[in-house]
UniProtKB/TrEMBL annotation:
<dbReference type="GO" id="GO:0016620">
    <property type="term" value="F:oxidoreductase activity, acting on the aldehyde or oxo group of donors, NAD or NADP as acceptor"/>
</dbReference>
<keyword id="KW-0560">Oxidoreductase</keyword>
<dbReference type="InterPro" id="IPR016161">
    <property type="entry name" value="Ald_DH/histidinol_DH"/>
</dbReference>
<protein>
    <submittedName>
        <fullName>Aldehyde dehydrogenase 22A1</fullName>
    </submittedName>
</protein>
<dbReference type="InterPro" id="IPR016163">
    <property type="entry name" value="Ald_DH_C"/>
</dbReference>
<dbReference type="InterPro" id="IPR016160">
    <property type="entry name" value="Ald_DH_CS_CYS"/>
</dbReference>
<feature type="domain" description="Aldehyde dehydrogenase">
    <location>
        <begin position="46"/>
        <end position="505"/>
    </location>
</feature>
<comment type="similarity">
    <text>Belongs to the aldehyde dehydrogenase family.</text>
</comment>
<feature type="signal peptide">
    <location>
        <begin position="1"/>
        <end position="16"/>
    </location>
</feature>
<dbReference type="InterPro" id="IPR029510">
    <property type="entry name" value="Ald_DH_CS_GLU"/>
</dbReference>
<feature type="active site">
    <location>
        <position position="276"/>
    </location>
</feature>
<keyword id="KW-0732">Signal</keyword>
<dbReference type="InterPro" id="IPR016162">
    <property type="entry name" value="Ald_DH_N"/>
</dbReference>
<dbReference type="InterPro" id="IPR015590">
    <property type="entry name" value="Aldehyde_DH_dom"/>
</dbReference>
<dbReference type="Pfam" id="PF00171">
    <property type="entry name" value="Aldedh"/>
</dbReference>
Length: 573
């Protein structure tokens, strides 16, 4: 009788779990009716240890999340550490189940996730889908497909002197990984470090800086609870110092200045650090490209660097033979772009997320114009509505720029396209490398070989040939920069294994039949011919000439045979 009821009980339990997972978005929906409270200009106000959050497009009140004290952060790290010890013993099957639950939820609720991100950062629904949904789904899919493969022990060669040994590299969880992430990609920046860390058996304490993070956190918690995973705790940015001092590794996404502060604090406990900092990516257009196509890509790359996105191109170098045609095509596209409320589908870009950042952008443009640059095109504003504030900045194209202008040196973080001419490959490589940043670059050329040659000479961590930002959609590849863009890597094999304690292991290949024994000649007390033996052994193993190696091997065997009778006679005496 029990054999009949058991499958029904299991199916009923599974159905109940699925119903629960499908219900929690409504339980925790953050987009409720909110009063149109506009905060004072400057830093966001806090009261009673609460972080007040506002929609950047209108500065309407979104809600708040708690600002934890350093003691509370350390307590939550301790709880995560306790849970991680259990999760570290989980199977890869269980970890893949967690990823599938997340992926199913994301696919079903794309619009809701994008709407929350749009309200919180000002990006359009399309940009939220491209930058938040697709990248996260690609990462989950890659981990499902290849994650276990790259975390299993990796066997290596043992070398000539250790042929009787097995050599391998094991990848163990580090413990608790701290993630301090930026607000510009609230969904992806929370999921990106969490996915790799949890799949590799770690606990995570993630510090977020956005209201939507509270909502995304609950999605993760529900999926983790369904598979018995450790909890992932979140805290406010003011407790970052306490977080760095409590965890086993820190992942930071933000500015170079704060990145240096993170490194200083991490040095006190000597924990590993991954830093993804600013960028000033070069977008290089050579003379034999499809101008209409590349112009479209260039404009999107510039808009990706606006205040709600980042990770875009900020310096545009165009071969002088086609520069006029290219600028005309870009100007035509930019003039057709309108900025407006991000949730309105008819607009191409939303608002600037950072308060007062539009003023900084205008200052950069004014500085460039004062030094000889010329504005050739600007986008327009749509109907912003009565509640709109000065958080919008139109896409702007400038020519006659040079590297003496602040616009070409500082990270803009805005929809500005400064276009500069070049004549030779050597010149454009020099220009592209003339930056304190080194995150990425894009090179467009009809001759792919020449494009690859240019890309290989640019000192950066990510390069795209005849495309823009495509490497980030290839989650098998690592992502990160050099110079002031940081170090360490997210994504790919390198990013996944960076969440691990990498342990080298050597064991006997034919135990217990063949074991490592110290030759009697070099046992204590060392024999008089001990060095002669060692010298011949090195020659026998690593000599460049086969005859020299054989001669040395004969000498090794001779010394061993001479030593053994001596040892035997001593024992008999």
């Amino acid at each position: 009788m029990m054999a009949f009821w058991w499958p029904i009980i299991v199916l009923a339990f599974a159905y109940a779990i699925c119903r629960f997972l499908c219900s929690f978005p409504q339980m925790f929906h953050p987009l409720m009716s909110m009063p149109p409270t506009i905060p004072p200009r400057g830093r966001t106000q806090q009261s009673d240890r609460k972080v007040q959050c506002y929609e950047p497009a209108t500065m309407k009140y979104l809600g708040y999340f708690p600002a934890l004290t350093p003691a509370e952060v350390k307590e939550r790290v301790a709880q995560a550490r306790k849970a991680q010890k259990i999760w570290a013993r989980s199977s890869f099957k269980q970890r893949r189940q967690f990823l599938r639950i997340l992926l199913k939820y994301i696919l079903k609720h794309q619009e809701l996730i994008c709407e929350v991100s749009s309200r919180d950062t000002g990006k359009t629904m399309v940009d939220a889908s491209l930058g938040e949904i697709m990248t996260t789904c690609e990462k989950i899919t890659w981990l499902l497909s290849e994650g276990e493969k790259w975390l299993k022990p990796e066997y290596r060669s043992s070398g000539r002197s250790m042929l009787h040994k097995i050599s391998k590299v094991e990848f163990h969880p580090l413990g608790v990984i701290g993630a301090i992430v930026s607000w510009n990609y609230p969904f992806h920046n929370i999921f990106n470090p969490m996915l790799a860390a949890v799949f590799s058996g770690n606990g995570v304490v993630s510090e977020h800086a956005s209201f939507s993070g509270c909502f995304y956190f609950r999605i993760i918690q529900a999926a983790l609870a369904a598979v018995g995973a450790p909890e992932i705790w979140l805290s406010f940015a003011e407790t970052g110092e306490a977080l760095v001092s409590s965890v086993d590794k820190i992942i930071f996404v933000g500015s170079p200045g704060v990145g240096k502060m993170i490194m200083t604090k991490a040095s006190e406990t000597l924990i590993p650090v991954t830093l993804e900092l600013g960028g000033k990516d070069a977008f290089i257009v050579c003379e034999d490209v499809d101008i209409p196509h590349v112009a479209q890509v260039a404009v999107r790359a510039a808009l990706q660097s606006s205040g709600q996105n980042c990770a875009g191109a900020e310096r545009f170098y165009v071969h002088r033979d086609i520069c006029t045609s290219f600028v005309n095509q870009v100007a035509k596209i930019v003039k057709s772009i309108s900025a407006g409320p991000p949730l309105a589908a008819r607009y191409d870009m939303g608002d600037i997320c950072l308060q007062e950042h539009s003023e900084k952008l205008q200052h950069l443009v004014d500085d460039a114009v004062d030094k000889g640059a010329e504005i050739v095109a600007r986008g327009s504003f749509g109907h912003l509505g009565e509640g709109a504030v000065d958080q919008f900045f139109p896409p702007t194209v400038l020519i006659n720029v040079n590297h003496t202008m602040t616009l070409m040196q500082e990270e803009t973080f805005g929809p500005i396209m400064p276009i500069m001419k070049f004549s030779t490959d050597e010149e454009v490589v020099k220009l592209a490398n003339d930056s304190r940043y080194g995150l990425g670059c894009s090179v467009f050329w009809g001759c792919q070989r020449r494009a690859k040659e240019i890309a290989s000479q640019i000192h950066c961590g990510v390069a795209a040939v005849n495309d823009f930002a495509s490497s980030y959609m290839c989650q098998s590849l690592p992502f990160g920069g050099v110079k002031d863009s940081g170090f360490g890597r997210f994504a790919g094999v390198e990013g996944l294994r960076a969440c691990c304690l990498v342990k080298s292991v050597v064991e006997d290949r034919w135990w217990p039949y063949i074991k490592t024994k110290i030759p009697k000649t070099i046992q204590y007390p060392v024999a008089e011919n001990g060095f002669e033996f060692q010298e011949s052994l090195v020659e026998a193993l690593y000599g460049l000439n086969i005859w020299d190696r054989l001669r040395a091997l004969v000498n090794v065997l001779k010394i061993i045979s001479e030593q053994n009778p001596v040892a035997s006679s001593k024992r008999n005496a």
